[in-house]
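Recall from the previous lesson that a structure prediction takes nothing but the amino acid sequence as input. Here we apply that procedure to non-specific protein-tyrosine kinase from Microbacterium limosum. The sequence below is the only information supplied.
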Amino acid sequence: MELSDYIRILRKNWLVIVALTLVGIGSAAAYSLTREPQYEATSQVFVSSQAGSTVAELQQGNTFTQARVTTYVNLVTTPIILNPVISDLGLENISANGLAEKVSASSPLNTTIISITVTDPSAAEAARLANAVAASLTEQVEDLETLPDSDASPIKLTLVKDADAPFVPVSPNVPLNLALGALVGLALGVGFAVLRTVLDTRIRSTRDVEAITERPIIGAIPFDPRAKERPIILKEDPTNPRSEAFRALRTNLQFLDMDGGHSFVITSSMPSEGKSTTAVNLAIALADAGKRVVLVDADLRKPKVHEYLGVEGGVGLTDVLIGRVHLTDVLQQWGSRSLYVLPAGKIPPNPSELLGSAQMHALLEAFSRDVDVVILDAPPLLPVTDAAVLAKRTSGAIVVVAAGDTSRHQLEGAIDALETVDAKVAGIVLTMVPTRGPDAYGYGYGYGYGGYGYGGHAPESPKPKPAKASTRRARRSAETAPEQVRTGAPKGSASIDDLL
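The prediction returns the following tokens.
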């Protein structure tokens, strides 16, 4: 990963990092407050040689003394030194081993000074013990070093510094503990953020898409918390930044080199990624640009186009494919635009077979001759094969990916499903893209998306609008007179060219 990736991870998980850092500081503070204060008192003993009067003898004696100092340091915590201290001070509730845990000794390199340090919850007791241990060491070493045939020891220990009662405890070291707690909490927070990012397989930005496929990202639809209320944003609020995103998608689509083709399947890897709202809004945007557009609801499993646009959906594509009605009977113009909608009609038991039939192929060819752009809203790719079947007969498939919802494996599976049947992938459209934060998409100059919170798609379909009286009559007529509609268009009806 690059430095920018780590910065994005930190920005994305800063709350967790701060929280764990505070937890670390709080834990260190709690530990420090619950520990009993400990005081240290230190006394010092000087070791010297009493033998020799010449320079050579003194030098030899000094070498001997330095060699013995290490032995005396180790001798400080032994029972032979500590038992007299316990007896002299009347310490009945402690043993030599227990007292040894409080006592430590050291000697600086190339010196003959021994520092004796005692740690105790009482400052006065620590000083008293340190002085007593120093006195006991002085006496016991003199006895140990005195030879049987001599009255004096060649080594002399002198107490050169008495231990004083300290005013400030050495433990707990609150500033140090707080600093260590903050560092540990920060390290845990950063580690958690990196691990969370590595284990997160969801697609959250264009960088994740680019890591999976080389197909161009032709659109990014920003997240809109009100998308459920207004799925057809180009109708509800044409000046909304989300509307501008669909217009940008329209522009990018016109620049795609698809060998002169102009029919596109809008699909996704899984449901609820915004494919239907993308198909509808894209069709409206193309019609607003003066294109003659046919929007076909080819989702013969869960059709939504007629609900979004509020058109009659009782009869449609399935009825045309089985020859039950003529195309001109069910192709409906939407508003005053040059947009014509072919609903899905009744849900058949064999959607894949119908969409891959010769009748469907002939219908797509007819549309391609008579209109500028054909948009087909198809089912998701992973649950069923309908979209892959359609994509092979069109100019290409536009795969819709929901940011923060679709996983990398799902997108890879969707693209593989298309490539398996040699279908072209025209491009990728990201929906529900964050408008602020580290994963926000750069929408370009002038829109100011980061401050509005617009974008996204409707995860659920709105309630369909009541059909007009004329469309209700048309549906009843198609249901009660199947023989008439199967034989072709009613007398006096227009051809598709006349209608378009």
